Amino acid sequence: MGPDTDPAALRVLDLTDELAFQGARLLVGIGADVVRTEPGTGLDPAARTHWHAGKRWVPAEDPAELDALAAVADVVLESGPVARLRGLREDGSSRWPHAVHVVVTPFGLTGPRRDWTGDDLVLASAGGMTWLGGRPDGQPKPPPREQALQTAGAHAAIGALLAVVSGTPQLVDVSAQEAVAATLETGALAWIHAGRFPVRNGGVYEHVAHQIFEAADGYVAGGYSGSNRMWTDLLAWMAERGEASDLLDERWQDASFRWQQRPHVDAVVRRFAAGQRAAELAAEARERALPWAEVVPAARLTDNPQLRHRESLVTITGEGLPDGGVEDVGFPWAALPRPVTLPALREVAPGDEPWRRSEQNQVRGRGEQPPSRAPKSKALEGVRVLDLTWVLAGPYVTKQFGEHGADIVKVESRHRQDPTRFAPSMHLRSGSDPDDSGYFINFNRNKRGVALNLRTEEGRRLLRELVPHCDVVVENFSPGVLARWGMDYTSLRELNPDVILVSMAGVGQTGPWRNAVTFADTLAAMSGLSSETSDPGGPPQGLTFGLGDMIAANSAVLATLDLLARGRGGHVDLSQLEAMAATMGPAALESVLGDGGPDPRTTEFPNRSPHAVPHGVYPAAGDDRWVAVSVTDEAQWHALTRLVDLPCVEGDLAARRAHEDEIDAALAAWTSRQDGHKLAEMLQAEGVAAAVVATGQDLVETDEQLAARGFYPVLDHPLTGPVRHEGIVARLTATPGELNRPAPLLGQHTDEVLRELLGLSDERLATLTAEGVTE
């Protein structure tokens, strides 16, 4: 399927630069008809194959041509520094008020840093991702493959569809810095709730006993957190191989004791992994339903049997490509038919219309409402979501729905304990009350909490009775669990013909690996991301936060909004593996298309880029303080050399590359004497992209841009009192989101919801409590 197959597809005008390439690509993946325009550079061979496949290109050299294209678009997606935007009037309003106009900028359209610029390194640093990566004895490093920019792009696509669902044309403001800051897991939350922040440690998770281990012929990712079965089954496996050491002693059955003695446990597990081949260990782990995976390079993605079985790869065809095309990573959902073949970016023929005309498009493009329907105050007003999720990926989905007005009915129980509420290692706050967990509080705001013991038949019956009252059901159980409860998609449709079911299994509901148990680190390993976290010549380090969970969540949000926009039900079979693979950029194509030349990184300077010199993280004054700097053109280079004497007279990239070692050494010597915050301000004032490598404390306490934009709003929680939360990323001007309800106490709204939706009496509710159904 491609954009040519649906004449009623959403029409998108793509004015993005690298800041939001991923946003436009994701819209292609849901079947949008995307037309791209950029003066003189629209047909770059590498970009047109991955980032721009499925789009058409037209030249638009002057404002009148651009206005003519925008006049018939449903959505205009634009990105770049504020000074380069073409779609804003002087008063900050959109030139195209008839359309949804999404604008992605480095730091947002308002605030004291609205004019700051930045690439992936600078924005990952300003938003807190860079601080979390790297070895403790080396420079901080952002995640590979420009995850900061891809996160911003995903939120741009989400913002576009939120506005479409709202029915109101409007401007949508997305700050790349805020998109990053909302994707740190505990990076800022630990500061908010405990007055500390995670530090880089070479890839060892702080609150989950998972990391990368060396195998006999490569590397594997895994560990022993999660349910108690994860530990007992791993221990049995190690014992079978004679590798359990003293871990069979009774004292190691206590989870708290294991956590306190984690270095010893890790050492035993390390010996166990070292004696096995990586692929064989991963295969047996899947058979045993344990969360382990081989760390594979991205070049092997197209050979993955799970991806191939689910037809999640996409073949790109076009001029200059091999006969039959090239295989690329695809799109992370199976709801509507997703593209399996796409043409590379191609130019609209002279005299042809850029879009096919459609009456449905014309109505939707103007955002017209049916006469009987009042405009919404929030994009998802009137939508109710049944939330059956736990931990991070699923709650991150329903969190976003709740921010934009959906009524979230979250079902949980003491009998299926969400680790983010109950596990001490994920609590963040001191104390032991599950209702006081800082992790749970942040990701479950704007939700109503219902306690149902789903181990009881009556609990499952009540759950089924809630389905007709809900528009969306979101779950992240293992495949098959809902079917055993009579709540698979076919059964749900009998209860509610228009229901949207969002399933968030690690690798999807089908395929040879469908029963694989996955954590964020195992998905990163399977997707190729972990393999690229190594320093030159070193082992992969992995990530220390659940980036994959939040990438998957954004994908699930987008697919659900697509179905809501179409006014139809469906089953979003979301594979977190496919979501991760879709963020690997052109990695799977590089063996065919070339990778842009030799890797310029060194052990001393692991953040170098083939596109910029200097480009790196440099020491600033103070203990473990750093500043990110990126110079991409000659104007920025000359601006930098007016501030500091650097050993290169010429300004072109090739000349700077020839002197890169000397430039980096001289720049580091200069920055090490500067206050990082003041230095970033000085460099940005001269047009040089720079930012402090922010810690959680920096983000919450000292970042004037985030403070000015109110990114950490306060909600009054019944136990913690006033507490900051991470804010909303997609800022819709006409139907803005809001944080208006703290996370629920366990079962706080059980009686309220069951009375309201099912009409249960006080007597019936008391009986359910006495029988242990609502606990």
Question: Would you kindly provide a written description of the structure presented here, covering whatever features stand out?
Answer:
The protein is built from 31 helices and 25 strands. It is globular and about 80 Å long. Mean pLDDT is about 90; it is low at about 1-5 and about 360-370. The longest helix is centred in the N-terminal third of the chain and has 20 residues, at about 145-165. It is α/β, with parallel strands linked by helices and about 775 residues long. Strands 13-3-2-1-4-5-6-25 form an 8-stranded mixed beta sheet.
Strand order of the largest sheet: 13-3-2-1-4-5-6-25
The share of residues in extended strands comes to 5-15%
Number of strands: 25
Measured on Cα atoms, how large is the radius of gyration? 25 Å
Q: Could you say which overall geometry the principal axes of the C-alpha atoms support?
A: globular
The overall average pLDDT, rounded, is: 92
Unreliable segments (pLDDT under 50, ≥5 consecutive)? 1-5, 358-372
> What is the distance, rounded to the nearest whole angstrom, between the alpha carbons of the first and last residues?
47 Å
Structural class: alpha/beta
Summarize the amount of helix as a percent range: 25-40%
Provide a count of the helices: 31
Largest sheet: 8 strands, mixed
